[in-house]
Amino acid sequence: MKQHSALVLAELSYTIPALGHGYAGQSLHVNVGSPEVSSRPVTEDMKDRFIGGRGFDLWLLWHAVSDTTRWDSQENEIVISSGPCGGTAQYPGSGKSIAATISPLTDIVVDSNAGGHFGPYLKFAGWDAIELQGIANHDVIVTIDAAAGAGGEGRVQILAAPTDCPVDTHLLGHWINDTFADSEQDRELMAFVTTGSGSMKTRMGCLNFSLYDRKRRDLRYKQAGRGGIGTVFRHKHIRAVVVRTPSFGADSNGPADPERIAQTGADMRREVTRWDPVQNRMRHRGTAYLVQIMDDYDLLPVMNFRYGAHPDTHLINGAVWEQAFTQNLPDGCWYGCTVACAHAVDNYRVQTGPYAGGCVIVDGPEYETVAGVGSNCGIFDPGAILEINFYCDTYGIDTISFGTSMAFAMECYEAGVLTKDHTGGIELTSGNAASALAVLHQMAQGTGFGLIFGQGIHRMKRYFVETFGADAAFLDDIGMEAKGLEYSEYVTKESLAQQGGYGLTNKGPQHDEAWLIFMDQVNNQLPTFRDKAEALHYFPMWRTWFGLSGFCKLPWNDVVDPKNALSSEPAKIPHHVENYVRVFNGVTGKEVTVDDLIRMSERVYNFQRVFNIRLGKGLREHDRVPYRSQGPVTPAEYTSRQERYDQQLREWLGLDPTALNIEEKLVAHRTHRTRQYELLTDAVYARRGWTADGVPTPETLASLGIDDPDVLAVVRQHL
Amino acid sequence: MSNQSSPTITVNRRESVEWTPGMTVSDLVRHMNYTFPRLVVSINSSVVPYDAYATTEIPEDADVRVIHLMAGG
Ligand code: SF4
Description:
In chain A, about 40% of the residues lie in helices and about 15% in strands. In chain A, helix 1 (about 45-50) crosses helix 2 and helix 7 runs antiparallel to helix 23 (about 575-590). Chain A has 29 helices and 17 strands. Chain A is globular. Chain B has one domain: Beta-grasp domain (Ubiquitin-like (UB roll), Roll), CATH 3.10.20.30. Helices cover about 10% and strands about 30% of the residues of chain B. Chain B is built from 1 helix and 5 strands. Chain B has one helix at about 25-30; strands spanning about 10, 15-20, 40-45, 45, 65-70. In chain B, strands 2-1-5-3-4 form a 5-stranded mixed sheet, with no helix packed on it. Chain B is globular. Bound molecules: iron/sulfur cluster (SF4). The site of iron/sulfur cluster (SF4) has 14 residues of chain A, from helix 22.
């Protein structure tokens, strides 16, 4: 890695450890405020109880902050860790990084994962996790150079960011490569984390995790989007964290049993290659394959989740993106991922804003982006979706929070809550892509309506009520946020279990904890509260495990050998779960079972719940959801699915819909549906070993081995 | 679509669907607009192989389960 002449504010030289069974055995602590850099041991207790990834993030953050720490406090940290299996290139999807911080949107802990090369490279450079703490006076760049010394010596530096260093990611990335890479090999072995100008003035900043695409000889990015981690990053005045790994190979992660991993990985790669072409075509379309399917099942969010389908969806579905994506490139976001869903549109000509006329690579768009900034905003123009996607990424703004917030603002505009006077002349009608882009550019500049919008739905609601005299109840109904986080992009009105999958969560309504819509709404596999509660126990716990170990969730359930149909529980995809047990044991040298994996997650999940309680949320009142996620708010929504809703009144409540006017029907639905959610909450809390107020009991914590005195002290205040 | 007087089958323990002689699994999947590519279909508790949807006929009164495996982010 090239040395830069920038002022060195702090430095640490270290000996790069050989990795043993998936761990480096140390974490890196960087305080950009003091400024200082230090190494901390990763203890056996940390590995046993918190595993890695999100588990390490939470454990380190817990010890770094106090009960009163907020997102912008000096002591708040961004912690990034991969997990013991991270960097295992023999099994598909094993290169994830998980970032966590106290969120500016929710004021509690948020975790978000991303692909890219940073997490594995950080570990190969000798660090299981990095903690970023403090607030610098001026912008800094953190570099971790594991090729600094000839004899296995590494060096960490905090550098003052030079004046020629750009902020927005697509420019900053090239600057980093030009500045720190000496050769093509350097570029391949470097990875970094950045954000952009949009994260500075909003609360929905994302982190971009780079990967150097050897085929394109160019940079690509994957986003840790949720919860405003990018906002914290910029508030700390960090421009970038750059790591240069030493050369690495198949065994660099120090696996205990490489043969077992190689065998399991080969089987899985064959399965992916055989079945993906006739199933989801992830290798051609990425997650955007879901767009048409969600529309077909009335689950695609349209116009702020009012509707679940739209006649124009074919204009933005997977077939369209398959044409737009450059094909036949190995689009894995980490080496060895045969699912290879991380596609891109090459040579995109930017149409608007400060980079108009430039030619760029646009990563994605993924399903969440197409649904969020597309259908949910009534935008069915692939070009506009690409333009918004590009700017969100380079400005460092989460496409999900942007899309869901824009959908909300557009409905407010159409309902008369907002006028041109409020928006500074921007006509925020549904489907108006030019207006959405105008707000996006304002967010990056910190001007106009973009400044208000960038605070997210939770704060927009308050502002509209206090400043514009809006009806608070209406905004609470249609503002699709919970705990302060904007919903990800699935319509849940007809799936009570998924309403819980969004509401009864730790970080807020992000589907990575549980995606139960098909099981519940289509398959009717969860007919009772008990069934739903069991699913809302098992699946969040199982999905949490991916974030502890360093895996991507997608290879678990987005391509499956049809023989899975003959298994005892097809929904759990048992032969893939067995693969994960084999790979985890092959890396760590442990001999754990499927049940042990769930226990690992349960421990971390409950710990995160207690963490939320410690920070002032995490109770029943914080698990409530907006009524738009539960049922029809407006007469127009009701009328659009009148046959269904009338039938439900007959079946569920024994009412004769012909004897009711539409307002009475809406009230009947609301009374029933909100009551169902409360009953679901009771059942889920009981299954998870929590009190009726959502507090993990001391017995639950003891059974999970996290009854540490400081953990128990938090819950005791609420018993 | 349900009709008291016509023969029916039950889909996913909930929906009553009109049955016609010779109705195959493929016919049902089309009729229900089940476009999701990863389905597990069983008829009266027997799983139908993936490659036999077009040739497997559904008997009258059958209890048909069409399980959509999970997907999503
Ligand atoms: S499945 Fe897609 S997102 Fe997951 S690791 Fe592979 S390429 Fe990355």
